[in-house]
Amino acid sequence: MNTPGSTPAEHPPHGAAVRRGPFRAGERVQLTDEKGRMNTITLTPGGAFHTHKGFLLHDGLIGSLEGTVLTNTSGQLYQALRPLLSDFVLSMPRGAAVVYPKDAGQIITMADIYPGARVVEAGVGSGALSISLLRAVGDSGYLHSFERRAEFADIAQGNVETIFGGPHPAWKITLGDFQEQVVEQEEPGSVDRVVLDMLAPWECLDAVATVLAPGGVWINYVATVTQLSRTAEAIRADGRFTEPDAWESMVRGWHLEGLAVRPDHRMVAHTGFLLITRRLAHGVTGLTTKRRPSKTDFSAEDLNAWTPQAVGEREVSDKRLRRVARDASSTIQRGALPADEAQARRDQIADAAREVDGPTES
Hints:
The chain is α/β, with parallel strands linked by helices. The chain is built from 10 helices and 15 strands. The chain folds into 3 domains: 19-83, Roll (Vcp-like ATPase, Chain A, domain 2); 88-251 and 267-278, 3-Layer(aba) Sandwich (Rossmann fold), CATH 3.40.50.150; 318-357. The strands form 4 sheets. Strands 9-8-7-10-11-15-12 form a 7-stranded mixed β-sheet, with helices on both faces. β7, α3 (128-137) and β8 form a beta-alpha-beta unit.
């Protein structure tokens, strides 16, 4: 009988073994010097890590425990650790922009991707998100990734096998267009979660609605506001999904040094938007959130309605205009003009103010 938190030795989670124990040949290792600079290397028997300040032999690391501190040929100290997933994603070979760790974490949590879930994704890129999804679904789950370009699929496969120490039993990757392939290869209503990282996710409405189970989650990763808006409006118009929600996350690190505790000058700000919705039961029309009616196109009538008051600006009263005119009159260049010219300018402003006020009774 196993205690809570333990795993049978004969069936460890896939990839767990390569994350434990001493360093092995072929592993990626992160070296950090005394100034905090990081370098990621792949351990090779007989290899060496060279800098302008000497070199460090790989053989000195192979067989050492994680967390070892070594000295290179010129006395420079290096701390050796296995890269965390976030480190690996940012340093791994890539053919396309990666989904940043902050967004991958949001996708896993907000889409409720759990061990054993059946997930499909499109837009594999370099495999960064695929790694997080495979960790979430586990060996008993299922991840089917679709990628149009063979080069990207090869890069993703290499990165996935690097971090898991070989092919993952829950992963299947298919070359081709998501809309066409997913309905051919997945049974209707058999998928728990759909994750799309592509230019036009609104084109996949029918395919997603076909394979996604009732209550299943569809989450989209898009880069621009126009993509976000078009996807949301397409989902609303379709009627087979719940009202979509959208957000973005920003991560700001902090500088910690004695009493000098302050936000970092740089941060990981906008990387992409996440938009999430859920599949309704077949034949059910979703509830429409009550909100002000809006149009995506402008008519002449709409343009005429764009007055300062309509867009929230406060109307400036005649009284305020007169007061401002008087203030302007009293501050004409602060005496920079000759007296007679300044008086003429004041008279002009006074005449304008009287025209606004209208005739006065004597």
